[in-house]
Amino acid sequence: MAANAERTVDTEDTHVVVTRLLDAPRTLVWEAWTDPAHLRRWWFPAGWSVGDTTIELCAGGNFRHVVRSPDGVDYLSSATIREVVRPERIVYDGTPDDRNAGGAGMPPGAEVRVTFAEEGDQTRLTVETRFKTPGACAAADETGYAGHWAKGLEQLGDYLATVRV
Predict the structure, then answer these.
(1) For residue 34, what are the contacts with CB-CB under 8 A and spacing of at least 6?
(2) How far apart are CA 149 and CA 8, in angstroms?
(3) Going by DSSP bridges, is the β-strand pair 111-119/122-130 parallel, antiparallel, or unpaired?
(4) Tens-place pLDDT, residues 64-104
(5) How far apart are CA 123 and CA 22, in angstroms?
(6) pTM of the model
(7) Which of 11, 21, 90, 161 could form a disulfide with 3 if both were Cys (CB 3.0 to 4.6 A apart)?
(8) Bridge partner list, 112
(9) In this structure, is the dihedral angle defined by the CA atoms of residues 44, 22, 98 and 142, taken in order, positive or negative?
(10) Are 147 and 45 in contact, with CB atoms under 8 Å apart?
């Protein structure tokens, strides 16, 4: 069974880590994170919908994911992929000109490192975000950034339970 998501913030308030132990093999968790067909099934708040999702899975590639609020407002997750090590980690740099401090999962100018670690038949997924300044971290926190990721990883766990390998 999946454990509760955990959140820690470093002493300089520029670093947020959210983890979750998922009851699925690492290769499946990796696919759910990097294949737009899977991603569209879990990366959005309850009651919202998903717009365009594209992932160019290579260093220098682009990641773009749009979620739509119930009142029709689109929120963009946009990043440049810095590093891909299949199926261990992916590192993104949030697009600097994003207008949402939380970046709908990819804060502007922040580095997001996602790590997929095997723990027996389960996978420990860690989303580690390094903000450039404490102010950027505080602004993202005001949008509910860490809480949204904790909920998102819960939704990912729920989705993985429906996928057969």
Answers:
(1) 55, 57, 90
(2) 12
(3) antiparallel
(4) 999 898 999 888 889 999 999 999 999 999 988 767 888 87
(5) 5
(6) 0.90
(7) 21
(8) 92, 129
(9) positive
(10) no
